[in-house]
Write a structure and sequence with these properties.
Shape: elongated
Structural class: alpha+beta
Radius of gyration: 39 Å
Low-confidence stretches: 1-20
Strand order of the largest sheet: 3-4-5-6-11
Helix content: 25-40%
Distance between the termini: 78 Å
Mean pLDDT: 85
Order of helices and strands: HHEEHHHHEEHEHEEEEEEEEH
Length: 351
Amino acid sequence: MSSQDIPEENLPAEQDAHGAVGVADEKNPFADPGLPPHEHRVQDIDERAARRSERTVAMLFTVSMLATVGFIASYVGIPHDKSVYVFPIGHINALNFALGLTLGLALFAIGAGAVHWARTLMSDEEIADERHPIEASPEVREKVHADFKQGAKESALGRRKLIRNTMFGALALFPLSGVMLLRDLGPLPGTKLRHTMWRKGLLLVNMNTDQPLRPSDVAVGSLTFAKPEGLEDHDEEFQTEIAKAALMIVRIQPDNIKDKRELEWSHEGIVAYSKICTHVGCPISLYEQQTHHVLCPCHQSTFDLSDGARVIFGPAGHALPQLRIGVNDEGYLQALGDFEEPVGPAFWERG
């Protein structure tokens, strides 16, 4: 039905300039219904009620701060394997329950505080404004600035310091919850990549027999794999530690060793090198006794164990780190320190 079909007596009556309704015509078939008269809230006319609302908002923001502190305390203090009984859910992980409860409460309190602030203390008077072109004129920009200043004034942010301070406190503390979650990315490596388990006096243990090695156990031309004394297969950190501390032990005639430092760090021609390839960290396991070359099976990087384990072929960028060894009073092979270079791939590029 068009506006011409509406009986004239059913059209809204024309009102005055204070939000009144105009008569519909052919140019404007839909009359402006206007705005209902503004009704003041109790906070608008009673300062005591306004202060009660202020305290309520401040309390909600304070609850958010306490919940954020509780989130951090739960994250740090509650063991990840602890469980609690929560009716009617049953037994659940205590850490997950505490984190969800405190994080949800912190978010809810900020939101509820902001809503209560807007509903009870900020201006609720509806203002109608005519549509305007997208391009803002100087007059519009001035009006926007004036409206912003008026809104800031009506929000009473400067006058109601209790709300302002507690809101800033809640908003400042809440992001700490996200910062704490970054801890789950893993512990900072520190200097762990630069060091292994090897230290002075630690025995070289055969990986296959779990027995300490004597020089007589290593024949010329043989390849033996070793691990540090005290590192057992069932240890929780075994994989992490063996990935850095695994050794290749080869016996070469001293006259065939070309590198001076390699000879000094050996014992009767027995040399100990890292088993971890410096390309992508594969374990090296192929040895050619005539040439004293070892080959990484992953990408065929080849190292010369008679010449400081330098790279002679393949994508590896660095020589294998050598472990300085000797013999203790009981005749067992022992380390005389840790590797002088970091073990593994790409460490030099990482710094």
